[in-house]
Amino acid sequence: MMTAVQREIYRHLRDFAAHFTPPPPFSPHVEISEGQIIMMMSPAGRHDLAALRIERQLQPQLADGIVATTSGDIEEADLGQLRRPDVLVLPEAAMDTDDAISPRALQLAVEIVSTSNPENDYESKLHHYPRLGIPHYLIVDPRNGTCVHYWAISEGGETPAYEARVPYRFGDKIPIGDWIIDTSELPRYEQGVQ
């Protein structure tokens, strides 16, 4: 849990983020983690195309009342986290809020690795998403055509973590619960783009 000072820092960062418009070429959306505002470069076309294709694949497979979407901030103020996954799967009712969505409503978070800050997906979010209670986390990396599915959150110990991990390559079909993501439909970044 956060100290009183950390909570106050988060509150100030959250207030700042609510009124801050990053300059180009940064994304208009910011994240907060570890007491810092994280500004991201605006995603490239293939990044957004991968997210859109995953969203379209998942939507027909989901039960009534569950949606796949490429928009929505998630927030757990008690952990100092404001995040924006590239694809979220959650009950539609959880989106009926004037504030950020509770990450505990998510059934899956998908991150498409960006060329500008891959550590955010592979390190920071991998550390924080199990603490936020997100049961499935999929990292899609168009740089090298790989994916990693994490799940099974350990509850023992001080810090929850994912216990299960399976790597995939573009072309594989990834089972996530009752859903399948066909990675053969996902675009790769141009060679040499890092």
From TrEMBL:
Question: Mind telling me which SUPFAM superfamilies this protein's record contains?
Answer: Restriction endonuclease-like
Which UniProt key words apply to this protein? Endonuclease, Hydrolase, Nuclease
GO MF entry, a single one: endonuclease activity
rRNA-binding is among the record's keywords: no
User: Which segments constitute the Putative restriction endonuclease domain?
Assistant: 28-151
Q: Which PANTHER family match?
A: SLL1072 PROTEIN, SLR1083 PROTEIN
Designated name of the protein = Uma2 family endonuclease
Species name for this entry?
Actinacidiphila acidipaludis
